[in-house]
Amino acid sequence: MEENRSGNSSPEMTDVFLALAQKRVYIETYGCSYNFGDTANFLEVLKHYGSIPVSSPEDADAVVINTCTVVGPTERRMLRRLAALREKPLFVTGCMPLVQREAILSVCSPVIIPTERIREAYLSVRTVAPGGVGIVQIAQGCLGRCTYCITRRARGSLVSFPTEEIREKVRALVDAGAYEIQLTAQDTSAWGRDTGDSLPELLSTISDLKGNYRIRIGMMNPATVFPVLDDLVDAVASDRIFGFVHLPVQSGSDRILEQMGRGYTVQEFEEIVSAFRRRYPGISIATDFIVGFPGETDEDFSRSLALIGRIKPAKVNVTRYSPRPLTGPFAEKDFPDSVKKDRSRVLNAYAEEQYSAINRPLLGTTVSCVVTEKLRPGSVMARTATYQGVVIGQDLPTGTVAAVILKKDRKYFFMGDLVK
């Protein structure tokens, strides 16, 4: 019998959800919002089969681990977790089985579930869970050629999902009470490049639905933003879309960007940021940096710091370079961990100086925001129009529009009090 990509035979994949039917199932999810979208879909399929989600592996008849392997420390954490749970009936999905199946089998003997099987099963169910935040997957894979990235090997080339499918998922989530709709993909701005469509067209199509909601656009590679930049800037004008863009730059050095295979220059990245800022001066810009990439000199690193100072992002995600199997730089000489840790600390500290400079003038002001999720009893997260997080110490229903005084700056969010 011919085996599929995961190594499991087709009948096993057909029967995997039947194997979980009527059982108590614990799911643990790691990684990006796309993975969490897979888990949300998985749970809906399980409910269709009469399975019961539980909150701990001890209470479960079966355990599902949705894996991530984007960096080495995450991979090691995955393997430790799988080894700890190997006595349970274990099911594994996510990126890791697609590129590191042997590593998984060295610590446990699970049933491997291809992510495509989750999507296939979900399309026959299409229910959604109630909640203030809903994840909508718009594509799988990417067009990138980043030399360091193992995810593109796991997820493959770009496959954009149909417009009507996405629109119906948004509609279902809004009807179920979601206010924040998170569009997610490995590269959201690449959506439609394989079908002759474009992200701005998609945003226009899903922004005209009735209901109380706002869309957060997921991570966009600057290389795929450029071809649609003008239309994308126009699309963000909709009051259905948060004034927030996530544009990972990864380095402030053109030399390092070229070695990374990112497909743009620092100047081109800054042109994108400027295009959004000219139209929307208050827009929130988030970005990512990798520190300690092979060959990154002190001068290269200083260029990354200088770039942060110029663009003044509202959020910076810093990753220490981690050699990944099957990637170009895997065999190259790596920096000692101490160098990467030092550069990470310096870059994070400088980024936090920018947050303080942005946030300081806002303290004591009153802003309008909408409650998007309950954090814990007596505490909710609300978002401003530019996606600034405001934690309010009260139980409020999601979708509540509130006037809030910003009382405390926590760098990554504010603490606020309702205006009496």
Describe the structure.
- With 420 residues, the chain is α/β, with parallel strands linked by helices.
- Helix content is 36%, strand content 21%.
- It is built from 15 helices and 18 strands.
- It has helices at 10-20, 33-48, 72-84, 96-99, 101-105, 115-122, 151-155, 163-175, 199-206, 222-225, 229-235, 254-260, 266-279, 298-311, 337-359; strands spanning 24-29, 52-53, 62-67, 90-94, 111-112, 133-137, 139-140, 159-160, 180-184, 214-216, 244-246, 284-291, 315-320, 366-376, 379-383, 389-392, 401-409, 414-418.
- A five-stranded parallel β-sheet has the order 2-1-3-4-5, sandwiched between helices.
- β12 (284-291), α14 (298-311) and β13 form a beta-alpha-beta unit.
- α2 crosses α6 (115-122) and α14 packs parallel to α15.
- The radius of gyration is 22 Å and the shape is globular.
- Mean pLDDT is 93; it is low at 1-14.
Overall average pLDDT: 93
Overall spatial form = globular
Helix % is 25-40%
Describe the sheet with the most strands: 5 strands, parallel
Spatial ordering of strands, largest sheet: 2-1-3-4-5
Radius of gyration over C-alpha positions, nearest whole angstrom: 22 Å
Outline the fold blueprint.
Layout: H1 10-20, E1 24-29, H2 33-48, E2 52-53, E3 62-67, H3 72-84, E4 90-94, H4 96-99, H5 101-105, E5 111-112, H6 115-122, E6 133-137, E7 139-140, H7 151-155, E8 159-160, H8 163-175, E9 180-184, H9 199-206, E10 214-216, H10 222-225, H11 229-235, E11 244-246, H12 254-260, H13 266-279, E12 284-291, H14 298-311, E13 315-320, H15 337-359, E14 366-376, E15 379-383, E16 389-392, E17 401-409, E18 414-418
Parallel strand pairs: 1-2, 1-3, 3-4, 4-5, 6-9, 9-10, 11-12, 12-13, 16-18
Antiparallel strand pairs: 7-8, 14-15, 14-17, 15-16, 17-18
